[in-house]
Design brief:
Strand content: under 5%
Structural class: mainly alpha
Radius of gyration: 23 Å
Helix content: over 70%
Mean pLDDT: 87
Distance between the termini: 70 Å
Largest sheet: none
Number of strands: 0
Low-confidence stretches: none
Order of helices and strands: HHHH
Number of domains: 2
Number of helices: 4
Length: 134
């Protein structure tokens, strides 16, 4: 009977993961359809379409450097929380201190990597913008 509960828990977890993935795909498809509908209406109204307008509609106002920076800051602030959690867990089970500190350091490095990626994306976007206007 105990195995049934564990199996149902695992099934619920993976079902949730599948639902999140499907919802993300569905949202992306709907967003793309809305962009194409906007382009279709502009063409039907007879307005002039230039490349900047097409880029703005199809790419939106996305700034991956900003998104990476926000994610990096969030992840960096999770790392000390994991270290503190490791300390509290080690009060009950001392061997867990070093593995939790290792996880904390790993998460900190992921955050640093996201911040470095944000800087590289910002530089690439700046280079693209200057190349476009020259």
């Amino acid at each position: 009977m105990n195995n049934l509960g564990a199996g149902l828990g695992a099934l619920a977890f993976w079902g949730f993961i599948a639902a999140v993935v499907v919802a993300g795909i569905w949202y992306s498809i709907r967003e793309r359809e809305a962009q194409h509908e906007t382009m279709r209406r502009i063409i039907e109204s007879g307005q002039k379409i230039d490349q900047a307008l097409v880029d703005k509609i199809l790419r939106g106002d996305r700034q991956p450097d900003r998104d990476l920076r926000i994610a990096g800051l969030i992840v960096i602030f999770v790392a000390p929380g994991l270290a503190i959690l490791g300390w509290f867990v080690s009060l009950l089970s001392p061997p867990w201190l070093y593995p939790m500190m290792g996880v904390s350091v790993l998460v900190a490095f992921v955050g640093i990597g996201l911040l470095v990626a944000a800087k590289a994306a910002e530089r690439a976007r700046r280079d693209d913008d200057t190349a476009t206007f020259q």
